[in-house]
Design a protein that fits this description.
The complex is a heterodimer. By secondary structure, chain A is mostly helical. Chain A has helices spanning about 30-65, 65-75, 80-105, 110-140, 150-155, 160-165, 170-175, 180-210, 220-245; one strand at about 10. Chain A starts with 8 loop residues before the first strand and ends in a 5-residue tail after the last helix. By secondary structure, chain B is mainly α. In chain B, helix 9 (about 250-285) runs antiparallel to helix 10 (about 290-305) and helix 9 (about 250-285) packs antiparallel against helix 12 (about 355-380). Chain B starts with about 25 loop residues before the first helix and ends with a helix. The model of chain B has no long low-confidence stretch (mean pLDDT about 90). The chains are: A mainly alpha, B mainly alpha. Strand 1 of chain A pairs antiparallel with strand 1 of chain B, so a sheet runs across the interface.
Chain lengths: ~250, ~550
């Protein structure tokens, strides 16, 4: 057998039309490349859903088991800050979507502006989250060694919350389970915040590249895929906000 | 379809092509920074072989300790550490990446007619994550080991042990992401990178089984990741999620862990089934019988695989109804597995069978996997499971499927594609000998363990009652033979890199696209992208190709 490749028959040799410089060597066309990376991003987001899915599962189970503890503990969260943060995050999704549009229509200035706005809104979100976390630390509501159930066994000791909700004192063995609620609160919002931090870091990198005009040449997949990621992180919050803040507000 | 008699080509005039993916660039950096899927496959092959032998050495220590009823070679807690490290290394650093990351990486783009995987940089990243995970495991061993068992059972792992649970957890977390990226890359490649004419049902079954395994990697591994994060948080901060004294539920950990770790056994076995489909077809010169059924049975295994996890928890206090349902679902997995075995057997029927080494290993796979699978049905039945669980029966079952099944398939694949990867043949006679030695050694090691298990010898103990000694001596003797069986391929395959006969393009007269290009392949695999105009495993097409060539030359 000779060394010549015995493929069925070879594809007709097309005239070598020029490929754009951003097309990777192993793709046939740029459309294939865009399609492929896009698909990969969706698949990656699917793995993210499974990742958060474990936490949502735990939430579901423990909420059913320790219902009164979950209601009382969720009264400790600030609706005002939570709503603010939801608004901030939805706005950032809007600016991100506008950014993708700017990239597609090749508006460099608009793209940079949108990315900077998204970046800032992301930071505002984290800032508000820090305020909320600080409050929890001060009240000893961080699970672990210094956890305190006083606000639940004796609600009157926590006048701000008591004024609003008039919670009844809980027996100690149920009050202890608020720790699980706060663990889930910190794990879920913390994991979410971690994704925000990663997103903001990538945004910072993108702002520099966008100023140099990297995304306004017709090669928009990076901006587009990052947009998908950013919206995904947003959607996680859209589920966290009602589950952690709202669902037990009137009980 | 009848079989076609094929004479293997005369390779005496074959030369290794001067330009190929190995010779294209030189120097260590050209390997460490490569994005060529074939080079990354070689990097993976070297690293998983390294970890296989560490894990194997630990297995040797376990068998040596069990030679006598007393725990005399090592202290009991050392024994716990040894079997834990054996499990962690073999599962997360060998079995999960074994076939996909080496052979899959090397072959899937070529089989689809693509120049590379869809995401070459992610592919390299996955190897680096694997290496980081591996280094952390070595660090764990060097700094005292861990003794949770590879299952990280809570609250043992979170509250009662004073060993390196953290570094092991982080290592497995990182290695898990390496596996996610491999799976993601395969799915995207199979969807988007197929050559013109390469329809879904013209893909080799090797690709189908990798597709099914990738679905499991992508959907299952993140759940393992989050449960390890929870274990790490529980251990470091005492958050209470798995701690019954704070109202947490250890059983939740079991659910989350086995939601990954049961599908993980299909991640390990499915790619091996892909290898066997290729070798059985090639060495009986017939299209795989029931191609479509075999392809869909892979997907069925992947889908069913997600709904059987609680059969690991029959003695952990789940409800009787849950046991009933999971017992039934577990037995259902046997159906697609049996479809595969039967179809391979029918492929052999009236084929012109030859007994090259890959075929010997594949026969080993079929026999041992059948035994392993059938005993799996015993364990899936909740009644017998309660009698047999936590005994050596489990150990034997698992090793029949994983070592007898997967490792045999891995070796079959390595031998089968060795000429394609290196351009040189392995020495046939000695490798046939190694295959037979492996088979004998394997049976001697693990068959006695089935008997030990039914007699009630518990697993995970360094000492055992003296009446079990005879069977344990058999088992340890078998492990020695098995060790020789695994060392031989390393020696002669390394030897063949320099002294092996030159293979030529298609030494087996196989039909896959990978056999129609030079060996070792070019960096971009094909000079022009092929157009697929025939079904997979079409030996008549191959014959026609050869006739065409003869008339052309004549």
């Amino acid at each position: 057998m000779s060394d010549s490749p015995a493929i069925a028959h070879s594809a007709p040799v097309e005239g070598h039309h020029e490929h754009p410089s951003y097309q990777r060597h192993h793709f046939e066309t740029y459309e294939q490349q865009a399609d492929t990376t896009n698909f990969a991003m969706w698949l990656f987001l699917l793995t993210e859903i499974m990742f958060f899915g474990g936490l949502f599962m735990a939430y579901l189970i423990y909420r059913n088991w320790y219902y009164p503890a979950f209601v009382a503990a969720s009264h400790q969260l600030s609706i005002v800050w939570g709503t603010c943060n939801t608004a901030v995050l939805i706005s950032s999704s809007f600016t991100m979507a506008m950014g993708v549009w700017c990239a597609e229509t090749r508006r460099r200035g608009g793209l940079v502006l949108c990315l900077v706005l998204t970046f800032l809104l992301g930071l505002v979100f984290l800032g508000i989250k820090t305020i909320e976390y600080t409050e929890k630390i001060e009240k000893h509501h961080v699970p672990g060694f210094h956890y305190s159930v006083q606000a639940f066994t004796n609600p009157a000791s926590d006048p701000d919350t008591y004024k609003e909700y008039k919670d009844k004192p809980m027996p100690l063995d149920m009050a202890r389970h608020t720790e699980i609620y706060f663990f889930l609160y910190f794990a879920m919002t913390g994991m979410h915040a971690l994704h925000m931090i990663i997103g903001i870091a990538i945004l910072g990198f993108m702002i520099f590249r966008a100023r140099a005009g990297a995304y306004t040449t017709g090669h928009v997949t990076f901006v587009e895929n990052f947009g998908l990621y950013w919206h995904f992180v947003d959607i996680i919050w859209i589920f966290l906000f009602p589950l952690l803040y709202l669902i037990s507000r009137h009980q | 379809m009848s079989s076609t008699i094929v004479s293997l080509p005369d390779q005496s005039t074959a030369r290794i092509p001067k330009v190929n993916f190995i010779t294209k660039e030189n120097g260590l950096l050209s390997w460490l920074l490569t994005s060529d899927h074939k080079r990354i496959a070689i990097l993976y092959l070297i690293s998983i072989t390294f970890f296989f032998f560490i894990g194997g050495a630990l297995a040797g220590l376990i068998r040596l300790e069990l030679l006598t009823p007393q725990s005399d070679l090592m202290a009991t807690d050392t024994y716990n550490k040894v079997f834990t490290m054996h499990g962690v290394i073999m599962i997360f650093l060998f079995l999960v990446p074994s076939v996909p990351a080496t052979l899959g990486n090397f072959l899937i783009p070529i089989m689809l007619g693509a120049k590379d995987l869809a995401l070459p940089k992610i592919n390299l990243l996955s190897w680096y994550l694997y290496v980081v995970g591996g280094i952390l495991v070595i660090y764990t061993m060097a700094s005292g080991g861990v003794d949770t068992g590879w299952t990280f059972t809570t609250p043992l792992s979170t509250h009662y042990l004073n060993t390196n649970v953290l570094s092991t957890g982080v290592a497995v977390f990182i290695a898990g992401f390496s596996s996610i990226f491999t799976g993601l890359n395969f799915i995207v490649t199979i969807h988007k990178m197929r050559a013109p004419g390469m329809t879904w049902f013209r893909m080799p079954l090797f690709v189908w089984s990798h597709y099914a395994a990738s679905i499991l990697m992508v959907l299952g591994t993140p759940v393992l990741a989050i449960s390890l994060v929870l274990v790490i948080l529980e251990r470091t901060m005492g958050i209470g999620v798995f701690d019954p004294t704070k109202g947490g539920d250890p059983l939740l950990f079991q659910h989350l862990f086995w939601f990954y770790s049961h599908p993980a056994v299909y991640i390990m076995i499915l790619p091996g089934m892909g290898v066997v489909s290729e070798t059985i077809s090639t060495f009986s010169r017939k299209r795989v019988f029931g191609y479509t059924a075999v392809a869909f049975s892979s997907v069925a295994i992947a889908v069913f695989g997600f709904f059987v996890w609680a059969h690991h928890m029959f003695i952990m206090g789940i409800s009787n109804y849950a046991m009933l349902v999971f017992s039934l679902l577990t037995m259902l997995v046997a159906v697609p597995s049996a479809i595969k075995i039967f179809n391979w057997t029918f492929t052999l029927y009236k084929g012109s069978i030859t007994f090259e080494t890959p075929m010997l290993y594949s026969f080993g796979f079929m026999g041992l996997f059948t035994i392993g699978g059938m005993t799996g049905v015993f364990l899936g039945a909740s009644g017998t499971d309660i009698h047999l669980t936590e005994t050596y029966f489990i150990v034997a079952h698992f090793h029949f499927v994983m070592v007898g099944g997967m490792l045999m398939a891995f070796l079959a694949g390595i031998h089968f594609w060795w000429p394609k990867m290196t351009g040189r043949m392995y020495p046939e006679k000695i490798s046939q000998l190694a295959a037979v030695v492996t088979f004998i050694g394997f049976n001697l090691t693990f068959f006695p363990q089935f008997i030990l298990g039914t007699l009630g010898m518990p697993r995970r103990y360094a000492a055992y009652p003296p009446e079990f000694q005879v069977l344990n001596v058999f088992s340890t003797a078998g492990a020695t033979v098995l060790g020789v069986g695994y060392l031989l391929p390393v020696l002669y395959l390394t030897w063949s890199l320099k002294y092996g006969k030159i293979a030529g393009n298609n030494p087996w007269q196989a039909t896959g696209l990978e056999w129609q290009i030079q060996s070792p392949p070019l960096t971009e695999n094909f000079t022009t992208i092929p157009i697929m105009d025939h079904e997979a495993y079409d030996y008549e097409w191959l014959e026609r190709q050869k006739e065409k060539e003869v008339t052309h030359v004549g």
